[in-house]
Design goal:
Aspartate Aminotransferase, domain 1; Aspartate Aminotransferase, domain 2; binds pyridoxal-5'-phosphate
Amino acid sequence: MYYLNPSLKNLVRIFDQNERKGYLRLDLNENPGGLPQDFVKEVLAEVTPSMVAQYPETKHFSETLAEFLHTDIKHLCLVNGSSEGIRYIIQAFTSVHGRIVGVVPSYFMFQVYSEMYDREFIKVPYNEDLTMDVDNIIKEMTDDTQLLILLNPNNPMGNVYTEEEFEKLLRVAKEKQITLLVDEAYHYFYKGTFIKYALENAHVFITRTFSKLFSMAGCRLGYVVGWPEGVKMVQKLCTPHNTNAFAMMFAEKILQSPEILNALIDNFNEGRQYLLDSLDANGYAHKGEAGNFLFVKTKTDAPAIVSKMKADKKILIKSYPNVGNFGTCLRVTIGERKYMEQFMEALLELDQ
Ligand SMILES: Cc1ncc(COP(=O)(O)O)c(C=O)c1O
């Protein structure tokens, strides 16, 4: 008998990413400049036929990563991009019709996975002034809630949680036996982290990625951090050999090259400062405390600017509707200064 999972029929996914070649891509929070060309060449020179031919080995890279994070491999599960880890946590720690609480707007895949697996996603909205009140989250942490998803910092809002706020949420999560997932995809743009809670508590997970500051979105690599038994459950859901050898090779070299990591951070900071100063100088309101992206309130119609940027300037950005008192506004990825100059020049020309 033919069968089709009914949850998939109405599920909306966007598969248009492959038409972005030739554009300055400031729409998906990648690093537009990428890793230094010399570094890429140097790493690729070490690729051997057997490395291409064989299934990837994970032990060595897991140990390197564990050392970098000052932990042990029993706390880590490598995944094919952190979006894969998020999916497995939802699959393992929530049931059909299970209640998942998350803030909105946020990374859309939380809602996509909830729908895909027939979970109930409860949305906690931001305040009008774009702040997030943790008591609003706590109100939704009912006895039958199975998973709370937080992002620190949140994409696209860029806000962060203080240690005090996080501990308050953790106390309620423990009391009500709610698994807590903190997505730290943008961790390296912002130093605060709740990783110690994932290492010291059961039912707390952190997900991280090599796609953002590490500039490896094309390679697909991320990891889940948690308590050993929880990590084992996530591992059980992984496809065999889920992380590819090239991704681990690049990631290992970056972890072992502090100068590469520092240069990525310096370039980012310079680009961010330039963008903030230029927006201020030109009277633009903006929002985004942390992360490699900013919301910008435009003077004219934001979706029209997105279209014109694409058609006339070959620059990709996004617009978001209903962003509190910002209304419909732009979200732009922050990259090196030269890309921010390109963006600002286009914005000043088109937004009038
Ligand atoms: C908040 C957040 N989490 C996770 C991801 C997915 O990252 P990955 O490339 O590791 O799957 C993204 C990607 O944009 C993101 O914004």
